[in-house]
Amino acid sequence: MKSSRKNSLHIDREALATLALVQEGLLSPIDKLMNSQEAAQVDATKLYKGKSFPFSFILAPSGRRNEEVLKNLRPGETVDLVQDGQKVGQVEVEEVFGIDPLKRLEHIYGTTDTSHPGIQSTLKRLGHYAVAGEFWVDFEEIKTYKQLLAKRKKELKAKNIAAIMLAAKPLHRAHERLIRLSLENNDLVVLFLLKPYVQEKFSYELRHRTLEYFVKNYLPKNRVLIVPLENTYIFAGYNELILDAIVAQNFGCNKLIVGKNHAGLGLYYDKNSVKSIFDGIKGITIAIETVSEFVYCDECKTLVSTNTCPHGSHHHISYHADSILELLELGILPPAVLVRKEISALILSELFPNRFKNLQKLYADLIPTSGLLEGHSETEFYIELMKLYQTTSLT
Predict the structure, then answer these.
(1) What does the CA dihedral 362, 368, 373, 376 come to, rounded to 10 degrees?
(2) By the 8 A CB rule, do 350 and 207 touch?
(3) For 278-307, b where at least 16 C-beta lie within 10 A, e where not — what string?
(4) Structure pTM?
(5) Pairing between β-strand 47-48 and β-strand 161-166 as defined by DSSP bridges
């Protein structure tokens, strides 16, 4: 419904999604918008209610209108939260207090360097006043997936539930190997697909479609659950991995699987034992399982772990997502050893719609058929074209 109240705060979809993560318990122990004393204490100690949390949780929306509303709010009042003209929530005001936006950015990102990805956009949406108090928001997506996981756990009587955080941009063979490996040792695998709040050519919807295709066609689909993860600004900083662990644990997973080369893991050796950022963390009990990098070895002729392959790195093809994505964005079919041909076909059909002047003639001239006259899609053409690339009798 529309909000007609003058004391309403206007927020964007990203802020709404972040509040929803708290409302649904995924950022526990956070359960409210912190007041000035709580915020200062959390920023200093990295603890809230005796449990680790990397920075304070506040709402400080930007804009002159929001600032005027915030200045006039008094404890005990309620203020509507409005997004795109619609009321989407409400805050019971406990306190309004001033903040330093740059210090806020430093707590989240570890820097105030405006050349850092995300800093500039976050600074634009961050005001100088924050509101504290209990709140509610209307955001059903997270609740729906929590219910779906509970149902799946009951059906499978699942005890070991692993989480993997994925951008799948694009979904490649190393992702597939990681997911399969996770299924070997767990009853249920939750794939958290990162859902960003920036415009991308390679859209979230396309990434979801490719991941869903792989799960439905090549995995025991009742043992894999794809969950959109609202990848808001709070996950953009150097505390991303800690927040991932908190979300996965609160979602009901008891294991988080990450690569050993994850930027936020910070593995190091101390007295002959491996340490990481999770040593000394309070309240995060989820098991962290690290896996080695997967590569294709031209001597082993298969996908291998760098821990098990005896050949040097000069024999390895790495699965660098940005390089594979560059091929796709140029309209080039990546070799099937990098990306499954059906996945590449889905992606190219989306990125380059109606690319061919006469697809049916091209198909008839280049692709073997059953002899029947029938239409073919661009996706089918890419798949058949890849099969030709893989023909070896004349090479």
Answers:
(1) -50
(2) no
(3) beebeebebebeebeebbbbeeeeebbeee
(4) 0.90
(5) unpaired
Among 58, 84, 64, 69, smallest CA distance to 5 is for: 69
Share of the chain above pLDDT 70, in %: 92
| Residue 395 within a domain | no
Domain identity same for 154 and 192: yes
Number of domains the chain contains: 3
In this structure, what are the phi and psi dihedrals at residue 277, rounded to the nearest 5 degrees?
-60, -20
pLDDT, tens only, 188-200: 999 999 998 887 8
Cβ(254)–Cβ(286) under 8 Å? Answer: yes
Token pair for residue 14?
A: 């990203």
Contacts of 14 (CB under 8 A, 6+ apart): 125, 197, 230, 232, 233
- pLDDT tens, 279-324? 778 999 999 998 988 999 999 999 999 989 999 999 999 999 999 9
Give 220-258 pLDDT, tens digit per residue: 989 999 999 999 999 987 888 999 999 999 999 999 999
Cα–Cα distance for residue pair 175/215, rounded to 1 Å: 12
The pLDDT of residue 390 is: 83
Residue 368's pLDDT is 84
Specify if 1 maps to a domain.
Answer: no
How far is CA 333 from each of CA 289, 351, 379, rounded to the nearest angstrom? 33, 12, 12
What DSSP element (H or E) covers 378? helix 378-389
32 and 44 together in one domain:
yes
Specify whether 263 is located in the same domain as 173. Answer: yes
Let me know if residue 263 belongs to a domain: yes
β-pairing verdict for 224-231 and 273-275: unpaired
Please report, rounded to a whole number, the percentage of residues in the chain having pLDDT higher than 90: 77
Q: How far apart are CA 166 and CA 144, in angstroms?
A: 20
CATH number of the domain where residue 27 is located: 3.10.400.10
Statement to judge: residues 145 and 133 lie in one domain: no
- How confident is the model over 355-380, as pLDDT tens digits? 999 999 999 899 887 766 678 899 99
